[in-house]
Amino acid sequence: MNPDTPITFDLLEQHFFNTINEVAADSALWIVGSSGGADSTCLLHLCAAYRDQINPNQQIIAAHMNHHLRGIESDGDEAFCGDLCRELDIPLETESCHVRKQAVTWGVGIEEAGRRARHAFFARLCRSFAPALVLLAHHADDQAETMLFRFLRGAEARGLCGIRPRVMLYKDTEQELCLIRPLLSVPKEALVSYLQDRNVFWREDASNEEDDVDRNRIRLKLLPELDAFRPGLRTRLCRMAERIQQADACVERLATQYEEERLEDAVGGVLLKVDENGQLPLADIILMRLLNRIISRHFPEIALTSGQREAFVRLYRNPCLGALLDLGEGCLARRERDGVFVSRNFHLPADAEVVFPEHFPFRANVTGLEIHAARVLYDEAWMEADREDDNVQWINPQAVCGALRWRPRRPGDRFRPLGAPGTRKVKEILIDEKITQRDKRNIRLLCDDEGILWLWPLRLAERAKLPDGYARAEEKEALRVEVIVRE
Length: 487
Known about the structure:
There is one protein chain. This protein is of the alpha+beta class. Helix content is 39%, strand content 22%. It has 14 helices and 22 strands. The chain has helices at residues 9-23, 38-53, 72-88, 99-106, 110-129, 140-152, 188-197, 214-229, 233-262, 284-298, 306-317, 380-386, 426-432, 437-440; strands spanning 29-33, 59-66, 92-96, 133-135, 166-171, 176-180, 263-266, 269-273, 323-328, 331-336, 339-343, 353-355, 362-366, 369-377, 392-395, 405-408, 414-415, 424-425, 444-448, 451-456, 459-460, 477-485. Strands 7-8-11-10-9-12-16-19-20-21 form a 10-stranded mixed beta sheet. The protein has a 6-stranded mixed beta sheet with strand order 3-2-1-4-6-5, sandwiched between helices. It has a 4-stranded antiparallel beta sheet with strand order 13-14-22-15, with no helix packed on it. Helix 4 crosses helix 5 (110-129). The protein is elongated and about 90 Å long. The termini are far apart.
């Protein structure tokens, strides 16, 4: 079939047979995710048609999870899947999970909790019936929706790969969990038409029509409007996903090559070596991939943010030896002469410079201090109460340029203190405040890319203050920074 030929319902079976022969024909058992909706119902019918027309030895098991999100409707979905599987002569495995409760337990959203629960269910089935592949019914409209959703959230290159047609979630000596999506290039319309042509019924989830969820708003409102403005948008988004997936595979191969050349296991951590004479400088995206590999293999409990990855790149290119980046869970990255050393075991020197992540809130532990920073809604009473505490400052977030840094003072440091007519040297301020030589060693500076924001615990910078009229502004945010001195 020509790849440019639109996949209509009358061509769907042949397209499915060709696709499944390429990606899953070598598997004796397929575990097919079944929700009772149109997509998975169509996939089950196509799998049954493949068994009946192409390979009578193909084994198929349907898998349904009752998420208990819609009360009696969820139970109805499970009953429907049972009837469907009996009609198609396909065994059905079911499992129940109260997803709302699991979301609270895991500290994630309902959608993410449901995904985790389903993957765990699939993994248990693969263990019981190994070897097996898991087939899922994601289609081209899902791909377009995902691409647009991630683009609007500012996803990085890997996120813009969209939904992948084949994903190996994990593989070890005992089992593997591989997800296959054979309908990813097929529009939703073709799946529905295929079922209607055969008088096949399916279940409708009323929550999919509610526009109070971002994904639903994209699917119900934004995508149709964009498609009307530029017809064929869904197809172009799917093709874009394929191209980005190909580019991502090239980046992964490069990261593997550089991993062998630049990563070096060391006592207590891993060293990412800097560019040497004659070597091409590493691109930002390669540095981020190498950091991902360091974390996943040595510190898997850490969930990196995009802000931390970007801060790591700046740390790698920062010539200031001893600069530090807090990666969370007690793990730090330190700039050294021959590279960036990632570890949780080394002692922070008193004169360390720590680069904080650009996302808020964050909490960092630095040599006897805890630094908390968070964006909060302006509250005049709260701010007034904090004025009595030298260890708290409210900062205009619009004044912050780049990543925040916590460092000791240096010769020549100067800034414009709050209320001062011009800049002053930090040394002069300490003399005026009659700070003893011993206490001077404890003075620290909160800085950004443009200089000093706060001479802790003495003076705020003029440029960091909240502007006049802030109290009258509605829903204004401020950056609240608190330093806690540990005993």
